[in-house]
Specification:
Layout lengths: L11 E2 L20 H6 L1 H12 L2 E6 L2 E7 L1 H14 E2 L1 H10 L11 H12 L5 H4 L2 H11 L1 H4 L7 E4 H18 L7 H16 L11 H23 L9 H9 L8 H8 L1 H5 L3 H15 L1 H14 L7 H5 L2 H13 L6 E5 L3 E3 L2 E3 L4 E5 L47 H18 E5 L9 E2 L3 E2 L5 E6 L3
Parallel strand pairs: 3-9
Antiparallel strand pairs: 1-7, 2-3, 4-6, 5-13, 6-9, 7-8, 10-13, 11-12
Helix pairs in contact: 4-10, 7-9, 7-19, 9-15, 10-11, 11-13, 12-13, 15-18, 15-19, 16-18, 16-19
This protein binds protoporphyrin IX containing FE.
Amino acid sequence: MPDNLMPDKLVWSREVANVPLPPLVKGLPILGSGLELASDQIGFFVKQYHEFGAIFRVQALDRKFTVIAGTEANQFVNQVGTEFLSGRDFWQEFAKELGVKDLLVSLDGDRHQQQRRLLQSGYSRNAIVHKFLETIQLISDLTTDLRSPDLRSPFRLQVLPLFQKIVCEQLGMLLADCSPSDYCDDLVKFLNIALTVTVTQQSPAFLLWKPSYKRSRQRVLELARTVIAKHRHSQVKHEKPNLIDDLIADSQKVHPQLSEAELIAAAIGPYLAGIDTVANTCAFMLYALLKAPEVMAKVQQEVDLLFVNGIPNAEGLREMRALHGTAMETLRMYPVAFALQRYAIADFAFKGCRVNAGTHVIVATTVPHFLPQFFPNPDCFDIDRFHPPRNEHKQNGAFAPYGVGAHLCLGSGLAEVQIMLTMATLLHQFEFALESPNYKVQPVSNPVLSTGTKFYVHVQKRKF
Ligand code: HEM
């Protein structure tokens, strides 16, 4: 066995005989910790980490699960997660909603690795770095109303839906060369209900039977079928194959990796991938900047310079120190995908506590984001943490906004550029203000950490 897979007895072991179960968090009768979890899940995990350490059990209504957290948990999943944990059961339920047994995220082992290789290039940073002009143009198209001279000024803007539209449109065009246009509301509805019922299990299953959900689901599949048909009939050969080109090339092989139904389900990936993740990160980033005017001033100065010679390029974006620090600090303080859902597939001991096969395990990947030993003054929005000599995010297992282990986000490089470019464009073109300087966002976990739809700002075109 390679050295790095040898059990570190202090952290984990395959030996479970006489090892006790993890401590149980005391909650209310019947409700358990349900209310605390509903109001602030990540805050709850951090609080229990301080009280019990890296492993504890939680009961919330009829749900029971074990939480593992801290840098040790992230390192454990990175090293040997595939031996002990699987997300298959959760994600297979989600996959069913798209008419298939498996999606990339529900697979384990060799099949997972093979499918990751198939999708890797399509989801890579390269999908956006050569297409800044188109990406910026889409933002301009979707914000035409905000530039209209007839607009009463300043305009009251609901933040999250605008970002969801921008992000969905960008990823649809970049990765699939097909606009989602009026399918966007269906994609948002489908994703929210399907995820909260099947993966996070926050919503009751009957929602899957509601006609309005079923209609959105059908429309989502209709969009995917249109994308595939359009690519099959198109005479246009893309200079650089996009994600759908790669999927279709695979389907033409003698032994394709994906069945026709799996091909359709994979084609919807680009449209769903950013709706919760990138859109909420952008919304939180705007909020954080509006709460820190001195950071906003730095970022705005930087982005104005970025656009001084027209459309920026990837090198220019990479040099945006304040913008980059702001994006990273947003991912730290507002980690939209703050935990992973798994089942134990074999018995193991972690930090002196036993986890039995079959246990529902939540890997609270982003708890270290809030621990002062890794990020001093963790409640302070500090954009200089991520640059030398501090490099706080480079400590092993401390910074995990994109997950950990075998399923580490495949679109993280693309997402980082998308977030920076979208925010740079908007901050260059518009002046934003909170509705009141004392406004505090009330994040919701539904299913990801979100600003929710009650976050509004005032916006007007910038005057130069
Ligand atoms: C701020 C933005 C994003 C965040 C925070 C994020 C977070 C995550 C996390 C935590 C996972 C792991 C899920 C698990 O292990 O159960 C994941 C997986 C994945 N993400 Fe992202 N994501 C983001 C944006 C994107 C984008 C823009 C794309 C593609 C366009 C993307 C594509 C994927 C894919 C394909 C997987 C599955 C990987 C696998 O199962 O091997 N993500 N993401």
